[in-house]
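Quick one: structure for this chain?
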Amino acid sequence: MRALHVVALIALLCATVEPRPAAQGGGARGGRGPGRGRAGEELVPTALLSERNLKPGDFPTLRSTTGYVYAWEDVHALGFLTNNLIVITSDGVLVADGQGTPEATKKMVDAIALLTPQPIKYVVVCSEHGDHTGGNDAFPATATFISSPLSQANLARQAKRVPTVTVADRRVLKMGDTEIQILNSGRSHTGGDLEVYLPREKVLFTSESFSSHIFPSMANAYPSEWIETVKKLQQIDATFVVPGHGFLDPVPNMTREMAEFEKALEYVVGEAGRVHQTGVAVEEGLKQVNWGPYAKWSMAERNGPPAFRRVYDELDGKLKN
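Got it. Here's what it folds into:
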C-alpha cells in the first residue's frame, strides 16, 4: 500500500496546528504542501490534481475534522478526488460512501483498523454510482449497509452488497455519545442521494449532492430539484463541509464553493432552458449553448453535453417521477 498521509484538517483550516503523524509507516504530508495552502491563501480554483501540482502518489489521505471524524481522499480515474466520511465512536465506526474498487476501499478499511479497534458497523451508501460503491465488497461482511429506497432497488440489480436499511427522509443514529443524522434532502445528482450530518461536530458530508468545482454531472440527475436540494444543504449549521468529489479546502473556501455550485446548477439549468425556448432540437442546441464562467470548470467538456440533454428531458417531461 502507498504510504498513508494523515493530516489534521483543523491545521489546514486554521493554520495553527501542525500536521498529525502518519497513522501508518512513512512520512506524512502536511496540509500546506503543494495545492493545499493555508486558510485564506489563494488556491487554484479546480478539482484536478494536475492543476494544483499534486500527483496520485500523494494520496490516499486521511484528514481529521475532529479527534474522531475523518475525511478520506483518494484519486478518481478522471483525475480528481473521491471523498468519504469516517466516524469513529465507542459503539463502532460509520463510513459514508466507498471508493470505486475493492483495492481502493480496502486501503480505507485498513487505515480505519489502524485508528481504532472498533468494527465498521454501518456503511451509508450516499451515492449509488460505481465510483462510490464499486469497492463495497471490501467492507466487513458484518457491516450494515444503509441507502435510500431508490438506491436500494437500483443496487439490488447491480451489486452484491445490497443495503438492508433505507432512509426515505431522515434517520438518526446514536452511536455511543455521537449523534449521526442520515438525510434524504431531495433528488439531486441521482434520484436517491443521501447526506450525513453530525450536529454536535457540525460536519456535513454531502456526497455527490455537492462536488467542489466540478461542472455538474447531470446524466442521471433531476436538474431543477438538485438546485433546491443544495439550497437545503446550505441551511444546515455545518462548519466542515466534505464534498463527494473535489478538494477539501479551508472552511471559508468550502462554504463559498457550495454556494458557487448552486449558482453553477442554476446557470446550467437556466442556459439550457434558454436554448430550449428557441425551439431548436437538442443536438442543434448543443452548438448554441454558452456555459459562461462554468465552461472553465473541471470536467466541463465531459459533463456539459449530458447536462444539457438532461435539462431538455426535464423540460420535455421525460424524466421518471
